[in-house]
Write a structure and sequence with these properties.
NADH Oxidase, alpha+beta, 5 strands, globular
């Protein structure tokens, strides 16, 4: 395994927020899902399933549900001081549609992968003995497992020269109706996949030396309250290009 090639792949993988509508080969999706199901999971419980969405009508319904959720998200973000808002919602109230455009640029992607989680499969993990099925340590392990899966999906897509984005969901009922999955399965994320509509700039990351400690925690690096507010402003600024690129105001 070549480290430099691996690092190159990690840096190439970006959250792509606008896609070409061009179709992608069917075998690309199979390859992505084949790679994904090798992701590590707690006690090898593999608590995932996938719905590959190609049907334009279903895709449209999923997007409509997402847009409805954005109404509440936008209203809540408006309560923050401007510099602390999520980059996609840091616009004046009268420019709400601009915020929606930044958040929904993925809609043109030719394929969506709906990633489902099955909490019952967490019984495969020994951590279930230390918490109940949906909360506490068992829930933490399930969340970590689904995070491993998500990253594997994005890296696999990047290895094929494709773009992808992690789309988190808030309220499941309408998604469940659109996608037809039963209880107790849950929709974890939606991953739109397709060819990039733009080439983003370099990844925006904090310097490694700010994050690493040797032998013991270096208290001089600890974020106190006033430090955290500066940190929040900083990462909001780092995240801004990735959203502004959707509306043509940055390079991503």
């Amino acid at each position: 395994m070549n480290y430099d090639k691996f690092l190159e792949l990690l840096k190439y993988r970006r959250s792509i927020r606008r896609f070409k509508p061009d179709p992608i080969p069917d075998d690309y999706i199979v390859k992505i899902l084949d790679a994904a199901h090798y992701a590590m999971s707690g006690a090898n419980s593999q608590p995932w399933e996938f719905i590959v969405v190609n049907d334009p009508k279903i895709k449209k319904k999923v997007c409509e549900v997402y847009r409805e959720d954005l109404e509440l998200t936008f209203a809540l973000e408006q309560q923050r001081v401007a510099q602390y808002r999520h980059p996609a919602f840091n616009v004046p109230l009268e420019e709400k549609e601009k915020a929606f455009d930044m958040s929904t640029g993925w809609e043109a992607a030719p394929v969506y992968i709906a990633v489902l989680e099955d909490p019952r499969k967490q019984f495969g993990s020994v951590m279930i003995a230390q918490g109940d099925l949906f909360y506490s340590s068992a829930r933490d392990i399930l969340s970590a497992t689904m995070g491993h899966l998500s990253m594997t999906i994005h890296l696999a897509a990047a290895s094929l020269g494709l773009g992808s984005q992690r789309v988190d969901v808030c309220y499941e009922h309408a998604y469940k109706e659109a996608l037809g999955y039963p209880e107790p399965l849950r929709l974890n994320i939606i991953v739109p996949i397709g060819f990039r509509a733009y080439e983003p700039g370099p990844p925006h990351r904090l310097p490694l030396e700010e994050l690493v400690h040797f032998d013991q925690y270096e208290m001089k690096k600890f974020l106190r309250n006033e430090d955290y507010l500066k940190y929040l402003e900083r990462i909001r600024a780092l995240g801004r290009p990735g959203y502004r690129v959707v509306i043509g105001e940055d390079k991503g």
